[in-house]
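Good morning,

Attaching, inline, the backbone tokens for the sequence recovery test we're adding to the shared suite. The designed sequence is right after.
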């Protein structure tokens, strides 16, 4: 079983910092918000995007998939009471000449082997598609 460790600390009333390994991320924990840091909901969406990107890197060689580029766009819908993410829509755009069937195979494998996607699908509605870059 893999284990992960992240620590976070309050810097001041305008922000906090999270750390893992040698990396640090500034967190938007200011009640007024800040434009130069991810808030917790954006961090959740970024985690899902990173999971999908890393998943593609993992499965592309196994599928002998020609992956020249990839972008993930996400949109989360949050309800107020109780506060939670009720739906996440995503679009994966892949730069490739692979067939539509192979593109769907990549999509299925990204979702099947994604730690974050498998966790979130149990907690919220996760809806998305994959398409070829035009």
């Amino acid at each position: 079983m893999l284990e992960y460790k992240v620590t976070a600390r309050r810097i001041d009333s305008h922000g906090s910092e999270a750390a893992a390994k040698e990396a640090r991320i500034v967190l938007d924990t200011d009640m007024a918000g800040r434009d130069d840091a991810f808030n917790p909901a954006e961090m959740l969406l970024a985690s899902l995007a990173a999971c999908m990107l890393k998943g593609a890197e993992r499965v592309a060689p196994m599928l002998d998939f020609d992956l020249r580029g990839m972008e993930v766009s996400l949109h989360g819908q949050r309800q107020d009471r109780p506060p939670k993410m009720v739906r996440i829509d995503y679009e994966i755009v892949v730069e490739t000449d692979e067939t539509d069937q192979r593109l769907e195979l990549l999509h299925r494998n990204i979702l099947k082997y994604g730690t974050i996607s498998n966790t979130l699908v149990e907690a919220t509605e996760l809806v998305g598609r994959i398409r070829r870059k035009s």
